[in-house]
Amino acid sequence: MQILAVRDEFVSRDFDEPDAWWPAQPDVVGGRDRLAGGTWCASDVAAGTTALVLNRTERHTGTPSRGVLPLAALTHGAQWSQHVDMTDMASFSLVLTGALGVTAWIWDAVTLQQVTLDPGLHVFTSRGVDAGDEKTARWTPVLAETDWLDVLASAPPADDRTALVVRHEFETDTYATVFGQLITASPGRLRLAYSRTPWERGSWRERQFSTAS
């Protein structure tokens, strides 16, 4: 299973790069949001599962932080929603991948929908999975035929909502691509390649984790 995850966030919101940050989940490796302590993307090395949360368009603000969602999904699997109150959360897509396939949950701030995906390439944007929006249409054929890291390095950040790496300047902050990671996971093994400037091909670093280490 391979996942390319690109994080867009306000540049003022600092984070730690992927590691085993959560003592209650010692096999879980992911980037840590310094403000709320959760994560946008994490993997359970032993299980070979990965969970990530993505923004959606319906509601942009809310509490608690959605960074609890990937950690809950890695702990509770498909039953994660029984352990998290999402009522006041901003809308999101939560993706859980593993040996059994890929499942997504779509929260539009009103209802939660579960979607099981067939094997193959799937592209998530703020509109959903394989949504047919302009960004999905632009990048799906490219990602299907080209090395993913080369795709990210094909252009610098742009003030363009259809770009893979973005930079939007606002009066008080900048919303931009702040992290990219390529995840290759199987039970007992995790390989991560990642960069804070994913559009620079030479900036990517690699780490490997295993349950034997």
Spatial order of the strands in the main sheet?
2-3-4-5-6-7-8
The third-level CATH topology is Penicillin V Acylase, Chain A
What is the H/E order? EEEEEHEEEEEHHEEEE
Structural class: mainly beta
Give the distance, in angstroms, between the N- and C-terminal Cα atoms.
21 Å
Secondary structure tally, helices: 3
Global morphology: globular
List the domain count as a whole number: 1
| Low-pLDDT windows of residues | none
Mean pLDDT: 94
CATH superfamily (homologous) name: Penicillin V Acylase, Chain A
Major beta sheet summary: 7 strands, antiparallel
CATH architecture annotation name: 4-Layer Sandwich
Q: Tell me the name of the CATH class.
A: Alpha Beta
Radius of gyration equals: 16 Å
| Proportion of residues in helical segments | 10-25%
Describe the structure in your own words.
- The mean pLDDT is 94.
- The radius of gyration is 16 Å and the shape is globular.
- The chain has a 7-stranded antiparallel sheet, covered by helices on one side.
- By secondary structure, it is mostly beta strands.
- The protein has helices spanning 68-76, 134-145, 148-152, and strands spanning 2-10, 15-19, 28-33, 41-44, 49-55, 92-98, 101-107, 112-117, 124-125, 128-129, 167-169, 174-186, 189-195, 205-210.
Key traits:
213 residues, mainly beta, Penicillin V Acylase, Chain A, five-stranded antiparallel beta sheet, 3 helices, 14 strands, 39% strand, globular
Give the arrangement of secondary structure elements:
Layout: E1 2-10, E2 15-19, E3 28-33, E4 41-44, E5 49-55, H1 68-76, E6 92-98, E7 101-107, E8 112-117, E9 124-125, E10 128-129, H2 134-145, H3 148-152, E11 167-169, E12 174-186, E13 189-195, E14 205-210
Antiparallel strand pairs: 1-12, 2-3, 3-4, 4-5, 5-6, 6-7, 7-8, 9-10, 11-12, 12-13, 13-14
